[in-house]
Task: structure prediction
Amino acid sequence: MGKLFVISGASGVGKSTVLKQVMEARKDLSFSVSATTRSPRPGEVDGQSYYFITKDRFEEMIRGNEFLEYDAHMDNYYGTPEAQLEEKLAKGNVILDIEPNGAFNVRKRRSDAVLIFIAPPSLEELERRLRSRGDTPEEQIRLRLNRVQWEMEQSRQYDYTVINDQVQTCADKILTIIAKNSDEI
Ligand code: 5GP
Result:
């Protein structure tokens, strides 16, 4: 039976780049693919990034008790399908990329899950990164920054907080946490 690592971090902190490095360094880790009702972004592949499903299908899965946890976030549903997760855990360690509400719900159901929070070096730096994308309306930037502030407050309840000031250093720290909690070091 593998160990469950739950990783959270606001969009804009470079979480996906860090996670990519972590997954490349440890081929034994598998990634739990969430279901979502949001539309795919360019480059996202159904069944790899997410299972992109309709609201009706998502609600059917809620009624069928098919999620370990789910949450409504930014007008969309996101959830962790339990059967798929169990299958992956039977084979080894699994990474879950979910937001704090989901992370705490996972912890309630699986008290041995390890919660890791990826934080931006500072809120100012994150604001700069969000603005430098140049494609986000001002109101959305404000909403996101409020959300990030809330998420950073939640980070106190995580087992570990890792600051992403440099991708490789951040990935290395996460790899050390994974090794330590898998009884490897
Ligand atoms: P995005 O739309 O940018 O891919 O993800 C938005 C947020 O939803 C991120 O914070 C991500 O971690 C979170 N998320 C992704 N999958 C799940 C899930 O299955 N459950 C929960 N609770 N959050 C998720």
The radius of gyration is 16 Å.
